Give the backbone structure.
Amino acid sequence: MTFEETVRGESDPISTRESLRPAEAEHLPETDEVRIIAQYEARSVELRTEPFSRYAGRKCAGVAADAVTSAIAERLDAPTEHVAVNSQFETGNDGVPDDAKAEVLVTSTVWMKRWEDGVKSRPAVDFDELVAVTPSTVTATVELFGREYACVVPVLAKKTRAQLL
């Protein structure tokens, strides 16, 4: 496995369900949109609306990432320092979520020394072992504003190198 190569998780798929009550959002049932804070500054707040499906899809991908974090921690017998789990979510051109464009990315980072050759620190778990315990997909269901939204999200693993500036 080379650095920066991305592979699919090899462990059994998982599923999760979560009921969310987001304080930062307001559902607008007449237009099936959600009003959210787009930008917050000391003296002003900028609001924007987006389709319910886009907002729910983004929340669903986040719930999927949380489930992957828990699953990896339960399956490993080692600390998970230098391993990050994040959701990535895109929408199609029509603003509707495309589950094929949502993913959870598990990143294992090896930190390099700045002024000399060599490794400063590395994850306690071997990358191949991390891939072996990483679920291949997550089926996540979120309940928002009295409605359910489900997504199936692929889980990818990536080994990276980084150096502090």
Notes: The mean pLDDT is 84.
